[in-house]
Amino acid sequence: MFKEDLLNGKRILVTGGGTGLGKEMSRYFLKYGAEVLICGRRGEVLEQTANELMEENGGGSVKHFALDIRGPQDVDGAIEEVFQEAPLDGLVNNAAGNFISRTEDLSHRGFDAIASIVFHGTFYVTHSVAKRWLELGHKGSIISILATWVWTGSAFTVPSAMSKSAIHAMTQSLATEWGKTGVRINAIAPGPFPTEGAWARLSPGQDPDKATQDPSYSSNPMGRVGQMEELGNLATFLMSDGCDYLNGQTIAIDGAEYLTGGTFYRALAALGDEEWEAIRSTIKSTNEKDKAKRST
Ligand code: HXC
Predict the structure, then answer these.
(1) 27 within some domain
(2) Pocket, ligand 1, Cβ cutoff 6 A
(3) What is the count of structural domains for the chain?
(4) Which domain holds residue 227?
(5) b/e code 116-147 from CB counts within 10 Å (16+ = b)
(6) Would you say residue 5 lies in a domain?
């Protein structure tokens, strides 16, 4: 779709780049010539992904470092080290956390678990990177990965809907505040692009691979889920220099799903106590497995 050297010379950081959508976007940035940096909480997963992507690409550079974006000092320290080596040209705010739950069942720690990653963490990284761009007079492109519920709200994922809506507001606000500086900020709102991490917490018990293969799976007007290449192409386009006038936008890539009305999780309103208990324990066992991986 693009010239192979479209992103040559660009240095792009992808948060949460070890897995899921972050890994997929990194794949395309690398393919189009960028130097990619990925960060996340699990060093081993990042290392595996970096090696896999470089091998698949037959070269190129994917660097990795462990970073929990919930800690503002850790974030600023890591970004300082990155800039000491060379300034970034792009940032993808992809790291996120989410799980479905009845809102009345959430503890304040459950709310904070999502808000501290999506709302606070995304701001910390954006602030840390962009203030350096402004100091250096360096151009930069930021993309945040949001969801279409920034326009519709979303039942049973209220902390995510609130936090991602805040990042949508940040996108609009900073595009106007930094318009003259060469720092652009946009967002992508992907519809269903099945990944292991999101599916385990948002559609527990369902197989993300099956969702990809089954064209009738989605109630989507196009009758299918999204393909990673489609997301990768949009992210690549937003990172490129040809669309500098595109600023402050959140772009849905969802096969027009959210335009059909009701929000995705409304069907969950029919579930009772026992079903919610089962969902909660399935998600918790996923979280425990992930934590065990982080501590190894
Ligand atoms: C109710 C829950 C819960 C659940 C966790 N909690 N899961 N409450 N129902 N299913 C509560 C816990 O009980 C605890 O509160 C609090 O949340 C913190 O839990 P921890 O496991 O200690 O949190 P932590 O280790 O910080 O993990 C963060 C996490 C986890 C968000 C909970 O899921 C995670 O690390 N996720 C990262 C990956 C991820 O979520 N990927 C999906 C992203 S999809 P108490 O009070 O009991 O101590 C996405 C949007 C997709 O972002 C859009 C698609 C259209």
Answers:
(1) yes
(2) 96-99, 101, 105-107, 109-110, 113-114, 147, 160, 197-198, 201, 280, 283-284, 287, 290-291
(3) 1
(4) 11-295
(5) bbbbbbbbbbbbbbbebbeeeebebbbbbbbb
(6) no
